[in-house]
Amino acid sequence: MTNISFDLVDIIRTIQKQKRFILIVTVAGVALAAAALAVKKKKYKAEARFFVNNPLYGDRSTLFRSIDTRYVDYYGGDDDVDKIMALAGSDTVRGRIIRNSQFQTIYNRDINTPKGYAELMSIFKKNFNIKRTEFKDMEVSYIAYDPQTAANVANMSVKVLEETFRAYYTNVKYSIHNSIAAQVVKLDSSIASLTDTLAAMRDKYGIYSIISPARQNVIMSDNRGGGKGYGRAIEEIQNVESIKDQLVADRAHYISALNEFESTTNPQMDYLKVITTATPPINPAGLGAMLTVIAAALLSFFFATIYALIMAYFRRLNAIER
Fold it and tell me: Three-state SS string across the chain, please?
């Protein structure tokens, strides 16, 4: 069996012999890249960055704590960042961003049809990106043919994420608030009914002293009067008064809780803190014209050289076998 020698010297000689071919292929690759750049429509990438705030800092137990003085960090942890990532990947959030950004007008699709909505959703998924950085902040970006559109969609994405993340916590608080508010309405009705009953009983028996055992810090007044049924009247008034006083105390507690829950749902509290607002980019996305041409030249030179060397090797192989 004949050994075929194709060493470094042969490689250099082959490149020297085929330099015209390699040069032509390299120039052709550069020309094709330049033509593609001229024909291809430019795309622009806009970016926005934000921190995730700790939602527990706006919780009722934190805002109105009186005993527990545990420190609560302003910045959200990894769990909160994971929730933002999950929300950003949900169709609900993406659909809101598409509608709020008027994708049906930008991309000329009918958003009210399943086909048109699916196409808009596909366009958004292709051009949208969200990631976390090593500094625990998050970055959203969007690529579009129009710089202003790219910036608008990126900023709208942050806004929708903040609203959705906020609703994740505030909806529970609203449910509790509404439940307590309904209970206050019931207490108002019960207190009004007991008030009417007590007023009628006091007028009937002429007893106007405070005789409720629920009012522990109140000095009881002397009860004057007598006659058959007077003792029973005092006991009945005392029973009803104790119930009414407890309901009044519960109502005051519930109203205090309502005010606290209402404070925790105030829109002035930000759940996402924007640190960089997306602005219309000036330069197109990608490598740029110069880098693209250089990359095309290097790739063309590389493949042309490899092709010339392979062809030279096979020619030598065929010559030896014959």
Answer: CCCCCCCHHHHHHHHHHCHHHHHHHHHHHHHHHHHHHHHCCCCEEEEEEEEEECHHHHCHHHHCCCCCCCCCCCECCHHHHHHHHHHHCCHHHHHHHHHHCCHHHHCCCCCCCHHHHHHHHHHHHHHEEEEECCCCCEEEEEEECCHHHHHHHHHHHHHHHHHHHHHHHHHHHHHHHHHHHHHHHHHHHHHHHHHHHHHHHHHHHCCCCCCCCCCCCCCCCCCCCCCCCHHHHHHHHHHHHHHHHHHHHHHHHHHHHHHHHHHHCCCCCCCEEEEECCCCCCCCCCCCHHHHHHHHHHHHHHHHHHHHHHHHHHHHHHHHHC
The DSSP code for 53 is: B
pLDDT for 219 equals: 44
Task: Find tokens 């606290």 and name the residue.
Answer: 260
| pLDDT tens for each residue of 54-81 | 888 777 777 777 666 567 778 888 888 9
**CA 270/CA 154 separation, integer angstroms:** 18
Write the burial class of residue 142 (CB in 10 Å: 0-12 exposed, 13-18 middle, 19+ buried): buried
Q: What is the pLDDT of residues 81-101, one digit of tens each?
A: 999 999 999 999 999 999 999
Reported in sequence order, the residue ranges of the chain that DSSP labels E, i.e. its strands, are 44-52, 128-132, 138-144, 272-276
d(CA 163, CA 3): 73
| Predicted TM-score of the model (pTM) | 0.70
Tokens of 248: 């009044």
Q: What percent of the chain has pLDDT over 90?
A: 32
pLDDT in tens, 11-57: 778 778 888 888 888 888 888 877 776 667 788 999 999 999 888 87
More confident residue, 65 or 164: 164
Task: Give a three-class secondary structure readout of 119-148.
Answer: HHHHHHHHHEEEEECCCCCEEEEEEECCHH
